[in-house]
Fold:
Amino acid sequence: MNSLLKIESLTKSYRLGASEVPVLRGLSLQVGAGEMVVIMGPSGSGKTTLLNCISGIDLPDSGKVTLQQKLVDYQSETERTRLRREQIGMVFQFFNLIPTLTARENVALPFLINGIRSKDSLKRVDDLLAEVGMSQRSDHLPFQLSGGEMQLVSIARALARRPALLLADEPTGNVNPHIGRSIMEILRATAKRENTGLLMVTHSPEHAAWADRICFLKDGQIADELHHEGQRDVLAPIHAKLLALEI
Ligand SMILES: Nc1ncnc2c1ncn2[C@@H]1O[C@H](COP(=O)(O)OP(=O)(O)OP(=O)(O)O)[C@@H](O)[C@H]1O
Ligand SMILES: [Mg+2]
Structure:
């Protein structure tokens, strides 16, 4: 597999008072271009920590992350910023839209902070709003949107600059089942059409079933994986793994 993202022996601990709490303990994982990978694991197992260490929101203690054949230097703040502006799109559980900007302005933000104000970028913003079904809501402020609508807008924002890698932390955790399904359709279609690598965390076996591969995070490492290989009924195998791993 031509790997887009390669994570090798990643470790991360948090200091709590006098003690160190190890969260990631030598975790290794790869995501290919156009591949949709899901991470499942118990609450507190380090799924959000892992995504934050990849994007540079948080800093790993040790280990290597290679993105598009280049080793990421997390010590460099410039590189961390560039990573999030140019290579990685992020979708959060609680949307993280800017409350004072409209839906359209939120989606346009990745262009504006890079000083891009071209006709093409404005068209891209409107195309994305149409793709996620939010054209009629473009002038709404976030508080005038439902939770599901906010998430659709935040997905459009994450995709604005065609990131090579999309990280999604429980993108369907706070939306109704109908929008949850639309979100899965959009994410999967984007990964396949744009050749985007997608790494998504979810607690939902139904949503995990959309992935090409499911990685189970336990005790700070990937404890097991499930490859789809076009099987139709993957729900039963997912439930079996969750049960076996006591997740
Ligand atoms: N900034 C921090 N300082 C100290 N401990 C932290 C910090 N962030 C996370 N932790 C701890 O690290 C562990 C992993 O947290 P993380 O948020 O990555 O879990 P998670 O797998 O995403 O859980 P959930 O499914 O509930 O979202 C938890 O025990 C948490 O308390
Ligand atoms: Mg989390």
In short: The mean pLDDT is 94.
